[in-house]
Amino acid sequence: MAHKYIFLATLGLATACSEVQQYQASPGEVAPSAPSLSQRYRLAAGDKVRITVFNEPDLSGEFQVAPDQTIAFPLIGHIDASGASADELAHRITARLAQGYLNNPIVTAEVSLFRPFYVLGEVNHPGEYPYTSSLTVLQAVAAAEGFTYRANKRVVLLKRANSGHEVAVEITSDLHVFPGDTVRIKERYF
């Protein structure tokens, strides 16, 4: 009789887990390291970019991408940063500065502060946290002071910054979080 209940409980667990996905990286997606992430990364509101204009200290500095996806830059005004990489932003600024402001401007740009990620649900301190390179889900949970006693420690609901929906994903040691992602820890059932 007891074996029948164990079998039914196992069957119910298997059915519940059938909706969980093993996270599959999209083509070209690897664990983000600081240089590769900065090169592939697409700017959005909340990011900070360090822009250097060679021999122009008054034009160099750190700039934040505004909610309208632009950067207010001296002399040339607002530059569209939406969806641009740091290199593309540098090229846009170079082109605008070359239109009568500077002769042969040399501009570099790098992301100095990525937009934050979010941890919600069954963690001890849910909220917004600063992104660091190569961040995993387990490190994100640790930043939120760990799981609560009710937390499901096997599955996470992950919403990527560029996605409109959450996906249930099995928690593994190499499941990475990217800037702007939302990690939601659900309550376990038993």
UniProtKB/TrEMBL annotation:
Gene3D superfamilies: Outer membrane lipoprotein wza domain like (3.10.560.10), wza like domain (3.30.1950.10)
Gene Ontology MF, one: polysaccharide transmembrane transporter activity
Keyword presence, NADP: no
Keywords annotated in UniProt: Cell outer membrane, Ion transport, Lipoprotein, Membrane, Palmitate, Polysaccharide transport, Porin, Signal, Sugar transport, Transmembrane, Transmembrane beta strand, Transport
Cell compartments where the protein resides: Cell outer membrane
Keyword Protein biosynthesis belongs to the record: no
GO cellular component: cell outer membrane; pore complex
Membrane topology: Multi-pass membrane protein
Occurrences of domain Polysaccharide export protein N-terminal (ranges): 38-111
Gene Ontology BP annotations: monoatomic ion transport
InterPro entries named in the record: Poly_export (IPR049712), Poly_export_N (IPR003715), SLBB_dom (IPR054765)
Record domain SLBB: where: 117-170
UniProt family annotation: Belongs to the BexD/CtrA/VexA family.
Full protein name: Polysaccharide export protein
Organism per entry: Novosphingobium aureum
